[in-house]
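Researcher: Here's the sequence for the chain we discussed earlier.
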Amino acid sequence: MLDVLRPGVLDDLTLCVVGDGAGERERAAALGARVVTVDGDLADEDAVSVAVGALGRIDVLVVDAASAFVAAGGGMAGLRRAVDDGWNVVRAVVNASWVTEEGGTPSGGKVVFLAPAADAGEHANAVGAALENAARTLSVEWARFGVRITAVRPREGASDDERAELVAFLASPAGDYFTGCSFYPGAAL
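Model: Thanks. This is the structure I predict for it:
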């Protein structure tokens, strides 16, 4: 296990992990975060909004689109599920937790998209490109609300520990300096 971050760095944060994200859940909890999840049919926008509303304040949303891609069998079905389900949850969290009424002070938050590795099957690279594009576009659109969005696109051979540590870093105060960009764990420098 990588151990780059200090214990307690995520104290007082609520991190919502959508999808499997087992390593990310475990690492965030070990660093002090309260970890929650959105259960149910993520394709049902109304149900997602209700589920998100019941969770209370969310500081960081981690969307494991890689697990959605795999669960749908990859290909076009996996691409659609990963991107559409992820969008439904992101929109619900932003509207419920981070956007204020006209004239109020935006509270902001972070979104981390986890893409499948490019070699995870047909259209896996397209999922990564879609999530990277969403991170770039939404970081501009939602900057006025203090929302910071990044994408993690693991390279072949990236370990689960590398991905989990990167997500924890992005959730930490050090991650406040990143938005609209993508990270490629496992890449040779």
